[in-house]
Write a structure and sequence with these properties.
mainly alpha
Length: 146
């Protein structure tokens, strides 16, 4: 009797923490916390905590198995989302910092950093080949009535 009460209190507290986490816009972590908090009440409902007779025919036990299934779906769903995003938050942050520090193979300074060359460069003169390109584009546009 006391074990069921403690498990219920732990589950209620975990769901409260999940709600606060979801309020802070960390939905993936909130779903995982909710999955963890459903496990104790699921175990109580299935009769694992206090093994009782008639477990196989108990509606509560089958509802507990359904709750455990929901917890498993939340676990697997959050793992799938995490894999699709590219790992944990620390891994994504490390990848971003590594990308910022990227250096071209033959460069002496970071390729994404400020340029050492002067900002103004003389514009290249238009070549005669570009006029042919525009005529092709004009022909395509005329063909489509634009």
């Amino acid at each position: 009797m006391i074990a069921e009460t403690v498990c219920s209190a732990v589950s209620a507290a975990g769901l409260g923490i999940a709600a606060v986490t979801a309020y802070r816009k960390r939905f993936l972590a909130a779903a995982r916390i909710a999955a963890y908090s459903l496990v104790p009440i699921g175990l109580v409902m299935t009769g694992v905590v206090e093994w009782a007779a008639d477990t196989a025919f108990s509606v509560t036990a089958w509802a507990g198995f359904a709750v455990l299934g929901a917890a498993w779906l939340l676990f697997s769903g959050t793992r799938a989302v995490e894999r699709r995003r590219g790992g944990t938050r620390k891994e994504r942050r490390a990848a971003r910092s590594a990308q910022r520090e990227a250096v071209a193979p033959a460069a002496s300074a970071p390729s994404l950093g400020p340029s050492a060359r002067p900002a103004s460069r003389p514009a290249a003169a238009p070549s005669s080949g570009s006029a042919e390109d525009f005529s092709d584009i004009e022909a395509i546009l005329k063909k489509h009535g634009i």
